Amino acid sequence: xxxxxxxxxxxxxxxxxxxxxxSPVQDRAVAAYLGLAIGDALGxxxxxxxxxxxxxxxxxxxxxxxxxxxxxxxxxxxxxxxMSLALGDAILGCGRVDALAAAHAxxxxxxxxxxxxxxxxxxxxxxxxxxxxxxxxASEHDAGNGAIxxxxxxALACYGQPENQTRIVQRAQAHVTHHNVLSDVAGEALTLxxxxxxxxxxxxxxxxxxxxxxxxxxxxxxxxxxxxxxPGGYVVDTLQAVFQGFFATENFEDCLIDVVNRGGDxxxxxxxxxxxxxxxxxxxxxxxxxxxALDGYTRMRCERQAEALLSYIPLQSQSVLxx
Length: 323
Ligand SMILES: [Mg+2]
Known about the structure:
With 323 residues, this protein is mostly helical.
């Protein structure tokens, strides 16, 4: 038989589309990172809008179209995702969660002129440049959501380690920019909740154990009373809006639509709801239209970093330096 190019091609072994063979935990970890980025990209369009303004302009906002006050490209993310990636790179780069390495990574991130940056983050990073101390001074005014929005890399890197270790290192990364007790307890609860969902725990149990104990210790976080619309950057408002939307819905899509249509700090509430919902429902739960709309480079970075952080083994058990 005379083999033409066409015949050779036709008889070549079928190339399967490469689908990474992920364990359930890896699947949920990747989904959590993509959920963070999707919630950020979806919410940024309506950041600082009220629910009424959103209704008037979009009906129900549910498409990743960019725009918003930052004039983003469709699928572009903001500081919530890019600071998380910077923190994750710092963890992987030095083999542990190191406050000083995190501070340098955030400082480099700020020098690269990110699309947006929170006031508390900026102020405390500028003071880090002057003092070299990666722990911001304690302040009752620094109860913004800027440290908890980057909790995911710690949740992944500390997965399987003792709970107390997760709390310590989450606090260490948070204190680079936000040294505040409400930010601390919110960040610890969020990080541990993500780990619960990675383990495959049910939402009811996680709500009873984590959200309820946060509220019991700090009643300001109670989220069962008044609907939290138009949540600001205050970490209490943020978690109230996220918990209301997250625990009242039964899939990834409904959760994100509920949360971002509350407006306010919608990119950050979207990012936090997205990381929780991704960890809870896994990759199959994420609508393809959102996954495809996400900026391709960001998507690749999130997927790779999620896998790397999950398989990372700390260089030493004493994993916090600085402070
Ligand atoms: Mg943002």
